[in-house]
Amino acid sequence: YYKVNAWIPKNAVFVNEARFAKLPPATQQTVLKLAKDYEARGWDSSRQTYERDEAELAKTGVRVPNPDVTLQGDMRRLGERLTREWLHTAGTEEVDILLNFENKRSKAN
Predict the structure, then answer these.
(1) 95-100: long-range contacts at Cβ-Cβ below 8 A with a sequence spacing of 24 or more?
(2) Exposure string (b/e) for 37-51, b if CB count within 10 Å is 16 or more?
(3) Would the pTM of this model clear 0.85, i.e. be above it?
(4) Sign, Cα dihedral of 8, 56, 48, 70
């Protein structure tokens, strides 16, 4: 078993942008604050679950190392290839979402 963070449970909540825009500003701010709080709680819960599961694997004798540089590179290249293949079928909206995600991720690193 390698620690690759490929299975970190994630949940998402979507909102209708037009309906959200019709909410009073104070309600919009409340919703955004709650969303931020729940996002932090969700990531923390996922991290705790992941760490607990890895500890259980290790306790039962399964080795739980970090991937070496070669495996990391192989996985990165595979992800890039799968993304390129997906881009051939994705629409403009999907590509915009991916670009926005990549932009935010690069700013976070």
Answers:
(1) none
(2) eeeeeeeeebeeeee
(3) no
(4) negative
Counted residue by residue, the chain has a size of 109
Task: Match 């019709």 to its residue by tokens.
Answer: 22
Average pLDDT over residues 41-46: 88
Task: Confirm if 42 and 11 have CB atoms less than 8 A apart.
Answer: yes
Residue identified by tokens 């705790």 is: 48
Find the distance separating the first CA and the last CA of the chain, reported in whole Å: 26
Residue with tokens 């890039």: 80
